[in-house]
Fold:
Amino acid sequence: MHIVKTIKNLRQILHQVRRKGQKIGFVPTMGYFHEGHLSLMRQAKKECDICVVSVYVNPKQFGPKEDLGRYPRDIKRDTMMIKKENVDILFIPSDNVVYPNCYLTYIDVEKISNTLCGQYRPGHFKGVATVVAKLLNMVQPDVLYLGQKDAQQVVVLKTMAADLNFPVGIRVVPTAREKDGLAMSSRNIRLSSQERAQAPVLYKALKDAARHIKAGEGSVSKIIGRIQKTITQYSSGKIQYVACVDADTLEPLKILKGNILIALAVFFGKTRLIDNVIIPIKKSNKVQN
Ligand code: AMP
Structure:
């Protein structure tokens, strides 16, 4: 596995790869790997000749009061883990490489960056879109691999790639979960044992909502209320939001129809967890609210 720290070195290696006509898959990450990250890499290995993984904790996607300083990092552990996955190139740029002095250019995917998580994390998706655009220009992959866990990020990056004509395919990989249903996240290690024991309630509440929608529940407010009730009843989690939106446009739903995305963010102590499910409903359910 090549471990690369500069754009020049990265481009030299990838130039040879492209000359051979090999297909490049790219998995951008912030490191501290878990099975969710590895599932993206495995998919990339399956579908491409070369898998490039980046590890960069992007300061521009953290708000001033967020957990940039506390974000878990362990590049030695990460390197060992992905060597076993036969990743071809690990790209670990420093802040100076990504944002040299006098950096001034940002990408703002309007509207859809400001709903759901974006409402509570101003500037977050501007930071995400900017760093991913830059990484795409550095790596120039054929396929970009993203996790469904970050549903809004997927929609923002798909829109950015389409609007700015990035010549890249986007592959979305299902959310990897612990046995008890908790979505894997680098932040899970920050949970106390009590919080960790309660956190699976998020996915239980989402699955329960999905069951009710499939059974014909038509009221958006009832579905949201049900999820909120389950979370508050069975955990000490503090709900930031629970929302029912169109999975492709992130527009709030009035009618339960099409690709329904139910997304939520909940604090367990200082740790903010997100999760979501997508429920495809062909016919509209009766609206009751
Ligand atoms: P992160 O390191 O958290 O920025 O995540 C890097 C990539 O891994 C993003 O595309 C995430 O959506 C994806 N990812 C994170 N957690 C999971 C998970 N539990 N299942 C699938 N993909 C994930």
Remarks:
- The CA atoms of residues 10 and 201 lie 42 Å apart.
- Residues 124-139 form the longest helix (16 residues).
